[in-house]
Amino acid sequence: MSGTAERRCIDLPEVPALGGIYAAAVKKTAASRIGGVLPGGGRRRGADDDGRWQLPAVEHRVRRLRVDTGRLTRYQRLMGDTVREDLPSVFVHGLAFPVAMSVMVDDGFPLPLLGMVHLSNRVEHLRRIRPGEELSVRAWAEDLRPHFAGAQVDVVAEVGAGGEAVWRGVSTYLAKGVDLPGRTRPERPEKPVFTAPTRTGQWRLAADTGRAYAGVLGDWNPIHLTSLSARALGMKRHIAHGMYLAGRALAGAAPREGGYEWGIEFASPVFLPGTVDFSVADAEGGADPYGTVAFTGWRRGASREHFSGYVAPR
Questions:
Q1: Do residues 263 and 311 make contact, with C-beta atoms less than 8 angstroms apart?
Q2: Which Pfam families has this protein been placed in (predicted)?
């Protein structure tokens, strides 16, 4: 993760509401279609003198954030997690997410937020985080690069407490069909054949799963709410939040003591309602590169992987 010396800090008075961020994204997308942009939604003011696209050299920051313990309890119950006195890692992601999204609607951000595909997350949960701690959040974007299907970017969020970083996360997003001027897309890699592991669980996700998650963590992205709102954005049906899937996986896989790191990669969406077959297994001593615990989710009765990931103690 890069340093902060080259980035201009923008202090936000509070954590922004995601509804306002999505509204700003709609407005920005509409404005980009009227004029003054490069093909694919990149703004000209996000380019350097040679026409290459640049990420805004800014960091958005909220200095003081308190956890709503009622919200925490609702999250734990939604995920089937143990109600305990420390913050689950995906809950922390949810606290930082609006600050990270505010970076993506910055005037200089060159990619369209609406329609972004969530590819993966990598997280360092550096120590146990207590609900009563006063937290800070900062976020920025880095490493804009070609992808075989378009352009991808990392959005980094860091949560601090007592003057130290306690959580860091990198979310990787894809803008499909967007070409970066002067840069060539890599070849599409060969997709390995998915073989389902031994099932250890099964999740039956109701049609309102996305609305239930949004009701707790505030992510009211229309692609997760109803089939009607998802179809308006080009989806055939609404889909589960990627971080809901990560939260469900981590509820049974994350260590109960100390720090840990984890990652997840998304292979295909989970349409709602739907059923996900799930596997979590000890990977210590095996060939799996992920670490202590590996988890996988796939479509019931089919060889179609939805996600895979790992959890490793620090």
A1: no
A2: MaoC_dehydratas (PF01575)
